[in-house]
Amino acid sequence: MKILKSDPDGLAISYTNSTKALLISKLQFDDLSNALKEKYHYSPQAAMEFQIRQQQGMVELRNQLGIIEAVASQADNQRIDEGLHQRRIEESQRVDAQLVLAKQREAAAREKAADAAMIQAMKPPPQINMQQNVFIPRNYYY
């Protein structure tokens, strides 16, 4: 056993257990002999003040951790919101690209139909033999 530190309310010690693991513990002066209390200048008033300061420090630490957690949570929420926003942008871009492609296909189909109509209009009309009242198709050859 080795004494690591003397606080107003007790002694911090290190020791090894049966498995040779190093352990650290704090022994309160209330649990120690009067000889050890005198050797390490124990004062009940100083011990009480020390414990109050320790508790205040823990409260401050918890408050700071609460603030840190709140900031971290807010940052997480912001990252999630940014991710959702990015996905919405990407989805919008994908839909826009599909609309552009559909419009291009529609324009190509209209152009093809217009070309077909133009070709049809440029063909000579069918000939009708008025003497025999016979319809002669365009591509009919004798």
Order of helices and strands: EEEHHEE
Distance between the termini: 124 Å
Strand segment tally:
5
Tell me the strand order in the biggest sheet. Answer: 1-2-3
> Helicity range of the residues?
55-70%
Low-confidence runs of at least 5 consecutive residues? none
Taking the sheet with the most strands, its summary is: 3 strands, antiparallel
Strand proportion: 15-25%
What does the average pLDDT come to? 88
Secondary-structure-derived class:
alpha+beta
Radius of gyration: 47 Å
Shape: rod-shaped
Tags for this model:
142 residues, alpha+beta, two-stranded antiparallel sheet, 60% helix
Layout of helices and strands:
Elements (H helix, E strand, L loop, with lengths): L1 E6 L2 E7 L5 E7 L5 H6 L4 H79 L4 E3 L4 E3 L6
Antiparallel strand pairs: 1-2, 2-3, 4-5
